[in-house]
């Protein structure tokens, strides 16, 4: 049997595995949730810039720093946190399931 035929069989076993179907569903849903959250945060910030410049230009207390700085920093930190959440889940849950699926397909 050729290597291509063997690879095709392994691919077919992977695609027909219920764990693979579940993994795809869970991973895609999770990615869409994170994507939507990111879009809300980024477009919300851009919306603030476009429609409420006065809020972002207001100084915090009697200082020089405006509200735009901590809100912008919050957007950046949110991005780092969301990325960390995805990486953690991908490296633990998703990778473990992927390894199981590959082992089952090679048998």
UniProtKB/TrEMBL annotation:
Keywords: Membrane, Transmembrane, Transmembrane helix. Signal peptide: none annotated. The chain crosses the membrane at residues 30-51, 71-88. Coiled coil: none annotated. It comes from the Bacteria. The keyword Transport does not apply. One of its GO terms (cellular component) is plasma membrane. InterPro entries: DUF485, Inner_membrane_assoc. It holds the Pfam family DUF485. This is DUF485 domain-containing protein.
